[in-house]
Amino acid sequence: MAKILRLDLDTLKPHEPSIIELANKISDLEGIAAVNISIYEIDRKVENAKITIESDDISYLRVKHIIDKLGGTIHSVDEVVAGKRIIDDAVTLQD
Q1: I need a labelling partner for 64 at 20 to 30 A (CA). Which of 49, 57, 72, 86 fits?
Q2: Which helix (H) or strand (E) holds 84?
């Protein structure tokens, strides 16, 4: 089975915990190399956040468990990179 190297998640989270705390919890998972969280919309009670995670082998279920445990939900998985190396987006004729 191929290893997941990058995940981009569209999430909904409460204001607390902060994105700093959430990033720290995710980065504490074994093998996680980097976590980037950006808030793109703030509502009265929740925040929409894009979470990008890179590693040599990401466990989606462990990441989901942390987000769920902290009161968040995953709306969608917007990008997955799997295999032996990361391929950056390339310009195609459709672009």
Answers
A1: 86
A2: none
By three-state DSSP, how is residue 65 classified? helix
Phi, then psi, of 75 in degrees rounded to 5? -75, -45
C-beta separation of 6 from 81 below 8 A: yes
Domains and their CATH numbers in the chain:
4-82 (3.30.70.1340)
Burial 77-89 (b: 16+ CB within 10 A, else e): eeeebeeeeeeee
Query: How far from 52 is each of 22, 44, 45, 78, CA to CA, in Å?
Result: 12, 24, 23, 10
At 5-47, the pLDDT tens digits run 999 999 999 999 999 999 999 999 999 999 999 999 999 999 9
pTM of the model: 0.90
* Sheet architecture: strand order including 46-55: 32-42, 46-55, 4-14, 73-82
The per-residue pLDDT for 2 is 84
- Residue 95's pLDDT is what? 63
